[in-house]
């Protein structure tokens, strides 16, 4: 991945990349790229001597912006036909509602500390804002925004992949430490957090865990990449009421839906399944008895609805 990224010149219109490299560059799965090609006529790759798809820099740049807008909640069918300038205007307008508690130059500051390659500077920067904002605001405002900044900076070549990993490790460590300082949560529902096999991204489930623990919900992370059989066993052993799964934009939407359908078949209906993340925003398919969420706040509201349905009143 580093070798490919380091050889890409964003201004070289003659650069052609295979579909595997485009998936890594944009965070959009190969399955989605092929589906969009069939459904929308974009991307429109050329073919190399072996007949395999290759993509030019212009299309890759457009795909990067589309991925950014998907993370902001836009649907591909609404934006894929727009030109680059129209897409960039949408990106600018989607950032117009940033929280007033965020530093005005967050993007510049964050990229600068990451490029310093000094872990303690990254740690100090993030910890300073967490202390200033509090855990809830840090998660809802800064962390969501920072995740996008870092992802975009990596895909555009502003930072190296190891600098993205540094951000991920430091912010995970910081949030986990603060979750550990919260008073023990014993209120129902008992919630299990995990991801499907091959879904390595765990920042989404970590953010959910932090917010639910702040709400005194008994939410437990079981890590990443759990096969369905193990999820079912854990639910039975630990008497879980809800299973929450996060699917990033890089995860193929159809695979996410198939996974949820099989999991729903194998779990009793008394156990609710909730899912969210960038991959779920691209789907028009519904999964019976599975709730799909587009933001963190609606998932917190679902906890309140679950409690009301059980006649549970919680004192904080």
Q: Count the strands?
A: 8
How would the global form be characterised? globular
Q: What is the count of structural domains? A: 3
Strand content: 5-15%
Query: Which CATH architecture of the largest domain would you pick?
Result: 3-Layer(aba) Sandwich
Q: Give a quick account of the main beta sheet: strands, pairing sense, barrel closure.
A: 5 strands, parallel
| Category from helices, strands and their pairing | alpha/beta
By CATH reckoning, the class of the largest domain would read Alpha Beta
Radius of gyration based on Cα positions: 20 Å
What is the CATH topology classification name of the largest domain? Rossmann fold
The largest beta-sheet arranges its strands as 5-4-6-7-8
Averaged pLDDT, please? 85
Tally of contiguous helical segments: 14
Short summary:
It is built from 14 helices and 8 strands. With 316 residues, it is of the alpha/beta class. It has 3 domains: 2-94, Multidrug-efflux Transporter Regulator, Chain: A, Domain 2; 106-180, Methyltransferase, Methionine Synthase (B12-binding Domains), Chain A, domain 1 (Orthogonal Bundle); 187-309, 3-Layer(aba) Sandwich (Rossmann fold), CATH 3.40.50.280.
């Amino acid at each position: 991945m580093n070798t490919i990224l380091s050889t890409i010149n964003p201004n070289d219109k003659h650069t052609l990349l295979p579909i595997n490299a485009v998936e890594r560059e944009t965070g959009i799965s190969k399955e989605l790229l092929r589906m969009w090609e069939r459904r929308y006529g974009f991307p429109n790759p050329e073919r190399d001597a072996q007949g395999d798809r290759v993509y030019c820099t212009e299309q890759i740049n457009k795909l990067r912006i589309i991925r950014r807008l998907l993370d902001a909640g836009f649907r591909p069918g609404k934006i894929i036909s727009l030109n680059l300038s129209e897409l960039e205007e949408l990106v600018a307008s989607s950032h117009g509602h940033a929280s007033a508690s965020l530093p005005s130059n967050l993007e510049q500051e964050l990229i600068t500390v990451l490029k310093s390659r000094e872990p303690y500077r990254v740690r100090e920067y993030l910890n300073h804002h967490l202390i200033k904002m509090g855990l809830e605001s840090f998660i809802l405002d800064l962390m969501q925004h920072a995740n996008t900044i870092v992802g975009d900076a990596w895909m555009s070549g502003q930072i190296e992949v190891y600098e993205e990993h540094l951000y991920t490790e430091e912010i995970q460590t910081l949030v986990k430490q603060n979750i550990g300082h919260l008073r023990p949560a014993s209120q129902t529902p008992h919630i299990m957090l995990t991801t499907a096999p091959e879904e390595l991204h765990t920042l989404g489930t970590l953010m959910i865990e932090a917010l639910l623990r702040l709400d005194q919900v008994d939410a437990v992370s079981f890590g990443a990449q759990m096969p369905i059989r193990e999820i079912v066993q854990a639910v039975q052993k630990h008497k879980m009421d809800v299973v929450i799964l996060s699917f990033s934009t890089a995860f193929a939407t159809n695979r996410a839906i198939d996974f949820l359908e099989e999991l729903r078949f194998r779990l009793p209906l008394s156990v609710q399944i909730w899912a969210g993340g960038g991959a779920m925003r691209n789907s028009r398919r519904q999964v019976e008895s599975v709730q799909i969420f587009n933001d963190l706040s609606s998932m917190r509201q679902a906890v309140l609805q679950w409690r009301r349905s059980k006649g549970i009143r919680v004192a904080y």
